[in-house]
Structure formats: C-alpha cells, structure tokens
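Task card 7
Instruction: Convert sequence to structure tokens.
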Amino acid sequence: MKKLKIYIDVNYPKRLVDILIQIHNLQKEKQYELVSGSNYEIDSPELKNAIFLLVDNRNRGVEITTLKHYEDGCRVIACKTGGNDKLDRFEFSMTVLRVWPYIVEKTKEENAPFLYTFRYGGRKLTRVKKAI
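Output:
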C-alpha cells in the first residue's frame, strides 16, 4: 500500500504540525506522511494518495480556493474559522486534535474526492454537499 500524503496548510501552527508529525512517526508501518508548507507540486496520479488540510475563513459556504481544490479532484478537509482574525492557537490546536481521529478514519474510508469541514472549536466533520 502506498503512503497517503497529508498536505497541511501553511496557516496551521508550526508546533501543531510538529506534534502531528511526531504522532505519525510512531506508526509501525508508515501509512501517512505529513507535508507542511505551500510550495509543492503534485502530479495528477499522486492526487489519489493525497489529502489537503486547509483553513477556510469564510462565514458561509467555502472559499474559492477550498472549492477549487475539491473541483480539481482532491480530497479536502477544511477548518472553518468564521472569519475570526484573532484565533487562539491553543484552541485551534485542540480543535484539530479532537477531530484528527475522524480525519484519519475518512481517509481510510473514501478514495473519491470529498470536501469536509469542521468548525473552529468544533468536534465533528461535516460533509459539504453543496459547496456554494
């Protein structure tokens, strides 16, 4: 089985990303590879083994960049901040850690493109049926 690459938005706190990488380094059989940053190129065949974790600042619906990732055939999970410019990094990190088991579960269950969101401070993933 090929490793699944999880591309994490540059807006995620660096320490949170480091923690997630350390957690996944504990895997006996490496199933996931976490990649952080914004300067990476992905070929179309590699999209089958990629997940994108994004930050979405729009109050209603999803941002165009989030929607474009999904329309391009990507599997996307976005954290909805509701336009809140003053996010508490601790609460954001705790939110991501709360939903992380669900994120891993969805990556195992679904191979087709999908778009899920979770709210800042939330506890569950919500599938977006109609993106706009």
